[in-house]
Amino acid sequence: MSGGADGRPEAQMGATSEGILERGMGAALRALQVLAGSDLLDRLGARKGMERVLFRATRDGVRSAARASRTFTAVQRLARPARQSPVKSGGLFDITPDDEQQMLQEAVRSFAAEKVRPVARDADAALATPEELLAELTELGVGMLGVPEQLGGVIEHQAAVTGALVGIELAHGDLGIAFAALAPGAAATAIGRWGDSEQQAAYLPAFAGESPPAAALAMLEPAPLFNPLLLRTTARRDGADWVIDGVKSLLARAQACELFVVAAQIEGSGVRRPGLFIVESSTRGLSIQAEPSMGLRPASTGRLCLEGARVPAGALLAEGAPDVYAECVHRSRIAWCALATGTAKAVLDYVIPYVNERVAFGEPISNRQAVAFTVANIGIESESMRLLTLAAASRADTGRQIGRQAALARRLCAAKGMQIGSDGVQLLGGHGYVKEHPVERWYRDLRAVGVIEGALLL
Amino acid sequence: MISLETPSRLKPFVSQVHQVAKEVLRPISRKYDLQEHTYPKELDMLAALVDGMNEGGGIGGAGAAGVRRSSDRAGEGNRNGSNLATALGIIEMCWGDVGLLLSMPRQGLGNSAIASVASEEQLKRYGGRWAAMAITEPEAGSDSAAIKTTATLDGDEYVLNGEKIFVTAGDRAELLVVWASLDPSKGRAAIKSFVVERSNPGLKLERLEHKLGIRASDTANFRLEDCRVPKDALLGNPEIDVKQGFGGAMQTFDNTRPLVAAMAVGVGRAALELTEKLLKREGVEVDHAAPAHAQHAAASRLLELQSDWEAARLLTMQAAWMADNGRPNSLQASMAKAKAGRACVEVTLGCVELCGSVGYGEDELLEKWARDAKILDIFEGTQQIQLLIVARHLLGKSSAELR
């Protein structure tokens, strides 16, 4: 691995004629080179961990383009479903990521700065993230954090904290692109966490394979006052099948998705409770509608319409257990908090040089308390957001109750994140309102944090 | 490994302090709020108990005894030490009563100052005695570099002259840590702290204040008239080091601000818990699974207050944890103090509002906590001072550029 970059001319790496894997490898290796430049790798004695994180780059074989609707077939079924084991808490208060998390954090951070941020404005305008960029992010393994090791995953233990750290770094580059890149991982994580061995065998190998499918965790519905516990989408029993009807909102890359995990109200014999269903894109009765919105535009958001969509009995995750559904709601909120945190930090990092350089009335505007205090509050609240996010995620990894902590994090991140987005534009004044600067995009993207339920999952 | 839970090692200590707050402080909380300037004699026994805790496990006390920095600990791996333990203890005590905590013998902010900057010899000399902190003057509050109290060397003694106001526990303490300038023409660098015996004839009590809250705690105003203290009553380095500037005197704050933030966290939690209980009787409970907009407006408001309080709590723990690990924390200490100070005011006032006249009346403690809360956004550096410090750190500005 360490010699992998040798003999691979730089010019060739970027050549458009190359396969996705080649380019992906290039990205991973370049990320590694950034790290190798500092002596961090050796200082932490973590070179091996890094290799695991960049595992995909070492895979052989030529990738074929993904088909619109692949057939998901169980290759090899385990006797029992595979699960990532809970992290055993050391019992100490600590805000330092472990060595492996630091490696991944640094890799994603440099990737976000070098690859994501520079294309974010165009991706926002184009309502799409470049396929090559998504492929490179896939190569980095960011969508695989919730897949058990036995099924091709890379992380033995539960990885909500790791996922949150990745989300923070990626959203520092761009929130919409981070959403596009991380959304398929939500479906994989749901099946990894709650799927039975049949469901895992049928779907997870595809995520661990050469060309992982686009996928979505479809919970949100187009309704004011949406409540994920009271869904309009219904699933009713018909013989051995489930028949699902309803509309799901703001799915990342809905058009490209081959697999959905759909939240629907289970109806029957006096029961009414939400559950999660695995629905393949080739299912009859499915249609996709573009749903361009205020922000998240690089994620090509769309709606999924289900009209009499018929899925087999085995499509229901965890037999519709209410606690599993609640956990899914909580974990997705933490994931959105991570993205909000990253973008809030991006606002802070962007406004600092601006207010220091911008001169009005003969001195930098940051010499004025009205400006300086706004920056201070962005700093304080973005730090609050980070701590609440990590607190919730670390509780998730150690198997503690997370409902309260996730709700607090969501409330804070939605409110303060939006305030920070607004302050970011305000500090730049008229310049903040135009697309020369990214703050207007962050303003639009940060509004999503209090709006979306589901879609991401740690 | 990232974990933001209360360390399991400290849980017995936290629950012990909580019991004390519940059994000793809460029952006398209203009594001493109504009887301002009456010494809470119940605290003498409690103070002895706290002394025992401090000596016992090296675990840090419920007050301010154990906040000496451990700068030599950097790189030795994660440490949960006395700063974190003390912050957690203070949260519990202030859940009981913040005014009474401030009146705890031998747990004053002056003790923190001594613990932070005293020499080993001074530590021994002043150890086990109750020390208050005297910084503020009638014309120098937040602008503590502008203090006018002077200290003039005369043989083996310094002679102090000036006026000090808002000295918490000033009348009851045995020692006062007084800020004074060796040479007012040399600015911040000349400001030093001096330990003055309360019994010193040159230290004259002017009056005790009548206050909005923390009425169990006495707030004294003093005049220093040719107040003579031995030369070695000066804490830290007697040289006027212009380069080091204010740093020496200010470094105390990096340790004490997380502790004052912890007070705010404790008061805020008391108000939240009682409000949750009172609203539950009315059939209103926060449902943490449902979105805020799908809940009763009161529940949604409570959720908002809880989230700000939680942020204050975690920022406070982070700042204390950094001090334990020898990491520079003055940015995080000010962030914690700023957030906790304002969250505490917002939370307690919000709880009074939610509970109506039950919150506003003296039958419950909610109105008292809302009065107590306000000082926590003022002393040990006001909200505005914390924002200045945070802004200077983030923007890379000096105090001359950002005033």
Description:
The complex is a heterodimer of chains A (458) and B (403). Chain A has 458 residues and is α+β, with helices and mostly antiparallel strands. Helices cover 48% and strands 14% of the residues of chain A. In chain A, helix 5 (99-126) crosses helix 7 (160-173), helix 8 (175-194) packs antiparallel against helix 9 and helix 11 runs antiparallel to helix 12. In chain A, 54% of the residues are buried. Chain A is built from 14 helices and nine strands. Chain A folds into three domains: 18-57 and 95-212, Butyryl-Coa Dehydrogenase, subunit A, domain 1, CATH 1.10.540.10; 216-322, Beta Barrel (Butyryl-CoA Dehydrogenase, subunit A, domain 2), CATH 2.40.110; 325-450, Butyryl-CoA Dehydrogenase, subunit A, domain 3 (Up-down Bundle), CATH 1.20.140.10. Chain B is α+β, with helices and mostly antiparallel strands. Chain B folds into three domains: 8-122, Acyl-CoA dehydrogenase/oxidase, N-terminal domain (Butyryl-Coa Dehydrogenase, subunit A, domain 1); 129-235, Butyryl-CoA Dehydrogenase, subunit A, domain 2; 247-395, Butyryl-CoA Dehydrogenase, subunit A, domain 3. Chain B has a four-stranded mixed beta sheet, covered by helices on one side. Chain B has a four-stranded antiparallel beta sheet with strand order 2-3-7-6, with no helix packed on it. In chain B, helix 5 crosses helix 7 (247-281). The longest helix of chain B has 35 residues, at 247-281. Chain B is globular and about 70 Å long. Residues 56-67 of chain B have low confidence and may be disordered.
Instruction: Fill in the CATH topology of the largest domain in chain A.
Output: Butyryl-Coa Dehydrogenase, subunit A, domain 1
The CATH architecture classification of the largest domain in chain A is Orthogonal Bundle
Number of domains of chain B: 3
- pLDDT < 50 runs, ≥5 residues of chain A: 1-38, 43-67
Question: In CATH, what is the homologous superfamily of the largest domain in chain A?
Answer: Acyl-CoA dehydrogenase/oxidase, N-terminal domain
CATH class of the largest domain in chain B: Mainly Alpha
Order of SSEs of chain B, N→C? HHHHHHEEEEEEEEHHHHH
Cα end-to-end separation of chain A:
29 Å
Tell me how many strands of chain B there are: 8
Most extensive interface: pair and counts? A-B, 60 and 48 residues
**Beta-strand residue percentage of chain B:** 5-15%
SS element count, helices of chain B: 11
Task: Name the helicity range of chain A.
Answer: 40-55%
User: Could you list the spans of chain B in which at least 5 consecutive residues all have pLDDT below 50?
Assistant: 56-67
Query: How would the global form of chain A be characterised?
Result: globular
Quaternary organisation of the protein chains: heterodimer
Can you tell me the number of structural domains of chain A?
3
